[in-house]
Amino acid sequence: MLEKLLYQGLIGLSFSMYLWLLSAGLTLAFGVLGVLNFAHGSLFMLGAYASFTFYGKLGLNFWLSIGLSLASVGIVGAILEGLFFRRIYDLDLPYQLILTFGFILIFDDLVKMIWGGVAMIPPMPRFFEGNLIVFDRPFPIYNLFIIFAGLAVALILWLVLEKTWWGRMIRASATDREMAGAIGINIPTLFTTVFVFSAMLAAVGGALGTPVRVVAPGIGTAMIVQAFVITVIGGLGNLKGAFVGALIVGILTSFGILLFPVFELFIIFVVMAIVLLVRPEGLFGK
Model pTM? Predict the structure, then answer.
């Protein structure tokens, strides 16, 4: 029984990394720009569709497809930020939610027009095929890769935000936007780069999921709900909280499917409710 639970925990850990890649961008955008972007899930979906097109349809190299997917969604993010999001940074959250939810509907219809409404799964890259034996059970090699990819992104984010000049500018702008502008930081340009960076984080989650997860209209909507729960549990705008929240939600979901298959979502929302009652700002919020 113990080995079964440990194995299920590994499955939950791999799912947590997908959630982390999505919620990291959502958290970064909120922490720096102050915008709660529900359309972030649609950027996740676009990353999945772009990867499917480059790798599954055009037959390009897997890694090149991932890079092209990030670049494509980054361009979409730059357009969205420059034309729309820049105008709502100072508005209240309800107005932001209305606009970003509208983009969810727009992008869902766009992918139906371009790719159709049929769910698709591209082939698994040959070098990721097969399983490893873990606790006397087959564990997909690709799931192990996703775990290391999520941890690598967490390390890269920490290095970028803590050890680079760009990261210092981001932290300064998140702390005091007016003072950062007064000392010479170009706030509009910085915000555009942060938004593009957060969009690419969503895209990498969607792109890496294509060999094992269904690519279909609406996947972004389902994922953004879980990402929002993660950011609430961890603390809005806190990347450490987003990582811990992703671990909690991913592992609880995995065990919920194993032990209580009808109530796995119920368990997650109960945890969120408890956190809000005990610590309304989230586990790591301030």
Answer: 0.91
